[in-house]
Write a structure and sequence with these properties.
InterPro entries: Methanogen_methyltrans, UROD/MetE-like_sf, Uroporphyrinogen_deCOase. One of its GO terms (biological process) is porphyrin-containing compound biosynthetic process. Helix content is 43%, strand content 14%. With 325 residues, it is α/β, with parallel strands linked by helices. It has a seven-stranded parallel β-sheet with strand order 1-5-6-7-8-9-10, sandwiched between helices. It has a three-stranded antiparallel β-sheet with strand order 2-3-4, with no helix packed on it. Helix 12 packs across helix 13.
Length: 325
């Protein structure tokens, strides 16, 4: 029997896996690394960039607050006045918990994985709102290029700190690039503004010992897959059914793998049942096949919004392994 790591590699390299990869099983997340705060349900926080996040009780997640009082970047042409990158911690104490956790992982069995969020695109609209960020791409492209370069340089500095302290095998990187039906920006605009940033970031990780780049975007982004390949993404996690995953596998499977096709919104809700989960898992596995595909909830982490859904999905994947392998 292959290890989790071996089975994953056989799957994404078109080899001979002996079972379906069960969602995030190959990634061992090290969540103790310094460098980011996220709100918990019912909480309002301000992070090190000055961005205020609010997670209202009863909602499925948090989002930045963008009224006039809380918006960090009020004028893109004056971004240098408003945007100040936080200092990256360097003390042994700041990194001790993450290092200790990473040292417990059997790297032959699992990938030591660092969770990096938000990504470059998300940072632009977290600072100034989605509407302002999208308008700025059209109205002030020069300033947006400057801001993106600044964010990229900070992320590269943070990447160096992660590598120096943790020596990760895998990076799980969040940056949502679309809605359920379309990308937020055109492929041409993505190529101009964000592809260069990600080519630098992911090339840096790969040049410094990171074996696997997993990019999360639980959205439509089929029109951006060629750019994902160019920037060095190994696995696109969060691929929704609206992307026509089987067709993407057929077209690009030898260059990139796809993790998802089980839409969280369809199975992860208050009235969920194991039967609903099993139906969606079977559809995904039979349609997408054994290679270049990892059945997974589209949600960006090894959890579910409602208790039991994630574990039930794993059980259904095990059942499909018995039927198809």
């Amino acid at each position: 029997m292959l290890t989790k790591k071996q089975n994953l590699l056989e799957t994404i390299k078109g080899g001979n896996p002996d079972r379906f990869v069960k969602q995030y099983e190959f990634m061992h997340f090290i969540m103790e690394a310094p460098g980011g705060r996220f709100p918990q349900p019912g909480e309002t926080i301000k992070n090190d960039w000055g961005i205020t996040f609010k997670w209202p009780e009863g909602q499925l997640g948090g989002f930045p607050v963008h009224d006039d009082e809380h918006k960090v970047l009020k004028d893109i042409t004056e971004w240098k006045k408003y945007v100040k990158a936080p200092v990256i911690p360097t003390s042994d104490e700041a990194w001790a918990a993450a290092i200790a956790h990473a040292n417990t992982v059997d790297r032959n069995e699992e990938f030591v994985t660092l969770f990096v969020a938000p990504g470059v695109f998300e940072m632009t609209h977290h600072l100034m709102s989605m509407e302002d960020a999208l308008m700025a791409l059209y109205e002030e492209p020069e300033a947006m290029h400057e801001l993106i370069d600044y964010l990229t340089e900070h992320e590269l500095a943070y990447a160096k700190a992660l590598i120096d302290h943790i020596h990760p095998d895998c990076i799980f990187h969040h940056d949502d690039w679309g809605s359920q039906k379309s990308s937020f920006i055109s492929p041409a605009m993505f190529e101009e503004f964000f592809l260069p940033a990600y080519k630098k970031i992911y090339a840096f990780y790969k040049a410094n010992g990171v074996e696997l780049i997993v990019h999360h975007s639980d959205s439509y982004a089929a029109n951006l897959v060629p750019f994902m390949i160019e920037m060095g993404v190994d696995i696109w996690q969060g691929v929704m059914t609206t992307n026509n995953t089987p067709e993407l596998i057929k077209q690009y499977g030898s260059q990139i793998s796809f993790m998802g096709d089980i839409d969280s919104g369809v199975v992860d809700f208050p009235a969920w049942t194991p039967e609903i989960v099993a139906k969606e898992v079977e559809r995904a596995c039979r349609n997408c096949g054994k290679l270049y595909f990892i059945p997974c909830l589209t949600q960006g982490g090894n959890w579910s919004s409602f208790p039991g859904v994630y574990d039930s999905t794993n059980e259904a994947i095990e059942k499909m392994t018995k039927e198809m392998f």
